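Our preliminary data section would be incomplete without showing what the modeling component actually yields. Below, a chain of 339 amino acids is followed by its predicted structure, encoded as tokens that our downstream tools consume directly.
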Amino acid sequence: MHRHFLPYLCCPETKQPLKLEVIEETTSGFIKTGVLSTEDGAHRYSIRDGIPRFVASEDYADSFGREWEMFPVVQFQQQNTNRTMRDHTEKMFYSITEWGAEELRGHTVVEFGCGSGRFLDIVHAAQGNEGLVIGLELSGAADVARKNFGENCNVLIVQGDALQPPFNSETLDFVYSIGVLHHTPLPVKGLKEMVRVAKRKGKIAVCVYHSQCSFYAAPSIYGMRKFINLLKSRWSERQAYKIALWYSKFAGYFLYYIDSIISKIPIVGQRIVRFLQQYVYALSTLPDLQWRILDTFDAITPTYASTHSPEEIEFWLSELGCTEFHNSQFAPASYTVIK
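Predicted structure:
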């Protein structure tokens, strides 16, 4: 981290300001090792490998640490220049947020649940070093994201909980969360925190699983996720994730093409495929093999994966005092907000 991020950080428990003790710092000002603490010293948080650490464990987000360790840059823009998913990450980000690249410059932008950093990469590219980017991540994916950005002094990766983020109130210009809050035990609390840390008239964007989504709400996905979580509790997380990865590869390499063959059966082929995907086996149908494997693994391994209706999101926003918001049209449960 760099010192210029300190004014945005606070103790996640008490919201007190933090003082910085530097142990190792590069000539560019990147702090590799240090300690953040409250004035009374009652709360202390380490900075290790350039990442302020506000949590002791990955808790409910452990599957994402495994996921992004295995697929650290698969969804990054530059990795897909000449592939079937070209520009998908960039288009997804701007469709959900409805923000322009120019308006991000010179501002501080934070992502709740940054994973390995694919959307942070889009923001950083838009800013061209004329702004600050913060990624908040509970899981070990924080280390993957830090590695992806190296010792970039304009990018801060924080290991912390989206339900108790270590950010001062009303200090951030842009706040967004894409495909993350539904993986927490209390999505509405995560949204409340996003609203809290955004400046007055700051911009917020959120996207969660829609309750009518044919993929994430499918009984086949739910059943496989329940099975993997059962293995975690009865066996071991390591073995459960090995099985989940094996299944995801089997689905991506084999089931995807079986579906393609079945779909060509006259009259009934498409209906059979829809039935199989909804009720028999979990399978992402993205055209790129690595994205397909990643997306299947992502769907079947989380501890939490709730789905939500547009009416529910709008109710939450209204209860939080937000009056300027609308559906961003990327998905039914995707909203852009002005605080």
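The longest strand covers residues 198-207. The mean pLDDT is 96. Preliminary results of this kind motivate Aim 1 of the renewal.
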